[in-house]
Amino acid sequence: MGTPRLHIEQLRAEHLPELAVLLRHHAVYEHIGGIPTTEDFILDRERALRGPGASRRNERWLNFLVRERTTRQMLGRLEATLHDSIAEVAFLFSPTFWGHGFAQEALAWMHTEIQHSYGIASFWATTIPENKKCQSLLQRGGYTQVHTGAPVLYSYEAGDLVFHLRGPGLGRSRRRSAAPCGRHSRCSCRRLATRH
Question: Chain-centre distance of CA 127, in angstroms?
């Protein structure tokens, strides 16, 4: 799976120690709650890999590892929570590889993958106002900031900025007010995406 420059695969438990070394960096965690210990990083990702559990049948959690295609160097990770006919997306990439378009390219790949595999064409992301790099990446990828009319977003916390991308060719999603759901504390571009 992937693009001409990127190899994208399902994130697996055996990737986590190397991914922890790659992503546990001040620049990555500046806006998402501080650098976790290696143990906490791995435990959190293992929990995410197990998925939402039987009680939340309307959710699907997608977790991807992104590598540079020719060298197989790990670059970062993507994730999406699918619920209520929408996809909430998140991404973390090593600052060593910022500025090369890898995150934007990987995110575009994930949009297409979700549209083709799950029929979802409504993509959402949240971030804090201070995270200008995330906002810029989302806007370069076609997202627009939404001030009203967003659905319930599990990643949303009061004061967050909300961004939306409507993928081509598929139906509309149901829209509700953006509000904290209380069932999750995951988000994109702000702090380590964690699902409980």
Answer: 11
* Neighbour-count burial for 110-131, b at 16+ CB within 10 Å, e otherwise: bbebbbeeeebbbbbbbbbeeb
pTM recorded for the entire structure: 0.84
Exposure of 44 in the CB half-sphere (CA atoms within 13 A) = 17
Report how far residue 89's alpha carbon sits from residue 80's, in angstroms, rounded to the nearest whole number: 4
Among 94, 96, 104, 165, which residue's Cα sits nearest to residue 134?
A: 104
| Separation CA 76–CA 66 (nearest Å) | 5
Amino acid at 122: S
Handedness of CA 90, 50, 72, 110 (dihedral sign): negative
pLDDT in tens, the chain (196 residues): 999 999 999 999 999 999 999 999 999 998 888 899 999 999 999 999 998 888 888 899 999 999 999 999 999 999 999 999 999 999 999 999 999 999 999 999 999 999 999 999 999 999 999 999 999 999 999 999 999 999 999 999 999 999 999 987 544 443 333 333 333 333 345 433 434 3
